[in-house]
Amino acid sequence: MKTTMQVTAYPVHDERNRELHIDANTRERLHSPEFPILPGDVDLRALLVSTVSLGFSTSDGLLYCGLTSFDQDILDTFDIDAKTFRSMRFGQIADRFDVKIHRSLQFDSRGVIYMAIAGLSDVDELQMAPGGKIVRYDPSTRTFEVLGIPLAHNYIQTIVLDDRRGIIYGCTYPVPHAFRFDIATRQSKDLGFINSMPHSPGLDDEGNLWTTWTPLGRTWNNLMRYNPDTDETTWTRVALPAICADDTGAVDAFVNGGDGFLYIGTTAGALLRLDPRTIEVEYLCHPTPGPRIAGLIVGKDGLLYGSAGTHGNTHLFSYDRSTERATLLGPIYDPERKTSNWTTHALCEPRAGLFYVGETDNPNRSGFLWECRVY
Fold first, then answer.
1. What are 71-117's pLDDT values in tens digits?
2. Going from the N-terminus, what domains does the chain have, and what CATH number goes with each?
3. Which of 31, 32, 88, 346 is most buried, most CB within 10 Å of its CB?
4. What's the pTM?
5. Which residues contact 308 (CB under 8 A, 6 or more apart)?
6. 218-to-196, 250, 251, 281 alpha-carbon distances in Å
7. What residues contact 90, with CB distance under 8 A and at least 6 apart?
């Protein structure tokens, strides 16, 4: 079993990853409705970069990095051999409200990439903001195409692609809805107000969408299922289990395990298994010392791998479904830079044993791309 891990951190752009050294007044403004539209914040905006989506393209052999950045430079590629980044110059098709490609890099069978645009506009700006775009990028022609805006004046936190049916599903922010977007017709369907903020939706083997909804006036998260063949939504009363007093069962990561089950990482740090046939949820384990299983994938060796943690206490773990055992592979800490991943946000394995982890919400610098070699 692989248990040794070597970690290296890569700044997305060196000039964007200086220590911020911002004063208390400016730090407070980062969380105010006025930021980032106040004068004089241009340099600070360029530093506030996080890596919030990852996906590897077998077409061109590049790792695609969806970023948060207030300057609209929100998509890079990373050459995993040369260890170099290249901006995809997303600003050429962006407007000023487009600040994230958040949990939304999806690849079809031909290697074409679909992505969705997230925003951070406050309520007073939303009627001016057009809404989150669905964008297609073809690596063979190096061209972007805007396919549409599923819900006007609302932005897209996450998507999942049903390649066989040509459907993209997503969840929106700040007004939480689920939606269906048909690629061929470019028509969207609002699946309803879900009152929940899942970081990932799931897609089972039958092509059903799974996400969560929260009853009004409550905090827990119930499962919701949408069947695209019957166009029916099931608002279940099956709540995701809580593992501590303030746990709402919020979804941080969702993955199809390829074994008939869906696996869920929660913001409290629980690993769960959903049987979509019976709508039964099983608690498996709490694999790391902290909360937030923000990255969850099926590894090339068949194990589940996850990245978890926050406030600099972050780890990579594996879970063996045959033995029902989790293994903590180590902290996501670069000994050369003497720094840790602040909060993990995306996970990808381009080659066997070679993992990349995105970082977000670091209060002192931009979020690095983290390379974890597991032996």
1. 899 999 999 999 999 999 999 999 999 999 999 999 999 999 999 99
2. 49-193 (2.130.10.10)
3. 346
4. 0.95
5. 265, 269, 287, 288, 290, 291, 292, 293, 294, 295, 314, 315, 317, 344
6. 10, 13, 16, 20
7. 72, 73, 74, 75, 98, 101, 144
